[in-house]
Write a structure and sequence with these properties.
Shape: globular
Largest sheet: none
Number of helices: 18
Structural class: mainly alpha
Helix content: over 70%
């Protein structure tokens, strides 16, 4: 394959940041925005809440199914082509969700959204991290915080607001203009990068890893609400576990595996991936259980339930402003460990009787969660790929997102199991199970502090000669406009 030079009308780095942010905001928002509206959706379609929960489970299952192949597709067909194709599918599926005449149509369209989202996240981060070398990635804090942490936090309040004052259909319609604009910008602004995967496609690995992740996510989604002994859940959990073990054994032995599990052997990257899974479990768990606590146990509305976690978004924004300043001075380990310990303490405080009933206490604690947990999440994302070269970036991003996605699903499933399978109307008079679930999330974040001890002490340093020494415009190619297609 010969090199190909594409001269876009907009600087590639600017295009990457804009398109990535728009697409990932849509994807991140959709992971939580539907939660406050499930009661309303169930009522509109005349279905029980357990049936409406399928809307979210379908999204998560399909997202997990798309993750294993994302890295290979990006390397084989080009990150630009795969990313924009997935973004187009996500946007069209959003429109179908908003127009859905029945629950079945909504669930199917939601599954398409999830499948496209499973490709968007790892391929999008690959585009972003290939555009910026390790020593420049600290500048990305303000970009990464928006889709990975801020949007999931904004989902519940925005979902409640739209549901109460417009309708739940607008939870999906908001994606259409944003997705359309992002696709058009990407077509003209992004540059293609085809890494070229080694060897042939790992068919065996695909048929092991893909159903394994889908079945496990299904079991985690339905197990707490329908019972772990229900045949469909039990079979999915057992078969998914067997396939996952077989997939791992195959990937380790295969000459050209679908997923390069050997990358997890790297001390920094492996620790960062495990830490991402644990912190995602804690964050997604608390974002799941707290709106339910407000809505069911305290009798709050959907909007009030969403607003209960909104101050976290303010803390996250502040975290994005300080990480790029503190990380070079303190290093990943010294910045992450204390942040996670403080976050665990704040989570535990939320579980103290009387605290959750005080609106201002909740707002202050949620702000602290956003500040300290956001600092840790950003630091892990920025420093975890320091030792990963451009050739392995697509695979590394895919693995990272798989671990983080499964972590989030585990966190939600653990909280749902503790509060009684999501039968919130039966538990409305007793907030005890909700507080216990918050304690579980605090323990997960505390475990993350232990894993963070394996992060490096020092922040990435620039090489002796970096791309900032490239000739100025008019005297050669700028560093970010170099040929991007390999072969």
């Amino acid at each position: 394959m010969s090199g190909l030079l594409i001269r876009p009308r907009i600087r590639p780095r600017v295009a990457v940041v804009l398109v990535y942010t728009a697409a990932m905001c849509m994807n991140g928002l959709d992971s939580t925005i539907v939660n406050p509206a499930l009661y309303t959706i169930a009522g509109d379609f005349g279905r029980p809440l357990s049936a409406a929960n399928t809307v979210e489970t379908a999204f998560l299952v399909a997202l997990a199914v798309g993750l294993p192949v994302a890295g290979w597709l990006g390397d084989r067909f080009g990150t630009k082509r795969v990313f924009l194709g997935a973004l187009t599918a996500f946007t069209i599926a959003s429109a179908v969700c908003g127009l859905a005449p029945d629950l079945d149509t909504l669930v199917v369209a939601r599954a398409v959204q999830g499948l496209a989202g499973g490709l968007l996240t790892p391929v999008g981060m690959t585009l972003l991290f290939r555009a910026f070398p390790p020593h420049e990635r600290m500048k990305l804090a303000k970009v990464l915080i928006v889709p990975t942490a801020l949007m999931p936090a904004l989902g519940p309040p925005l979902g409640g607001l739209l549901t109460e004052h417009l309708s739940w259909h607008w939870l999906f319609f908001v994606n259409v203009p944003i997705g359309t604009a992002a696709v058009l910008l990407g077509v003209f602004g992004l540059r293609e990068h085809v890494e070229g995967p080694e060897g042939t496609f790992d068919t065996v690995g695909f048929w092991l890893a893909t159903p394994a992740l889908g079945l496990l996510t299904y079991a985690l989604g339905f197990g707490p609400s329908q019972g772990w002994t229900r045949p469909a859940v039990a079979v999915s959990a057992a078969l998914g576990s067997v396939l996952l073990v077989a997939a791992v054994l195959h990937q380790v032995r295969a000459r050209t595996p679908l997923l390069k599990l050997r990358l997890l052997g790297d001390r920094v990257y492996g620790s960062a991936s495990a830490l991402a899974g644990v912190t995602a479990a804690g964050l997604m768990g608390v974002l799941f259980v707290f709106p339910l606590l407000y809505q069911a146990s305290l009798g709050a509305s959907a909007l009030d339930a969403g607003l209960s976690v909104f101050p976290e978004a303010v803390g996250l924004m502040l975290a994005s402003q300080v990480v790029d300043r503190l990380l070079p001075r303190l290093g990943p380990r010294l910045l992450t460990v204390p942040a996670l310990l403080v976050a665990a303490a704040v989570f535990a405080t939320l579980a103290i009787p009387g605290v959750a009933e005080n609106a201002w206490s909740v707002r202050g604690l949620m702000f602290l969660i956003g500040l300290v947990l956001g600092t840790a999440v950003l630091t892990v994302q920025i420093s975890g790929f320091e030792s990963i070269g451009p050739a392995d970036m697509g695979q590394a991003m895919g693995l990272f997102q798989i671990v983080r996605t499964l972590g989030g699903a585990l966190g939600i499933a653990a909280c749902a199991a503790v509060i009684g399978g999501g039968h919130v109307t039966e538990a409305a008079a007793d907030p005890g199970p909700y507080r216990t679930a918050v304690w579980v999330t605090a323990g997960l974040v505390a475990l993350g502090a232990v894993l963070a001890l394996r992060l490096p002490r020092e922040a990435p340093q620039p090489p002796p000669f970096d791309d900032e020494e490239a000739p100025p415009p008019g005297e050669g190619l700028a560093a970010d406009e170099a040929p991007a297609v390999k072969g």
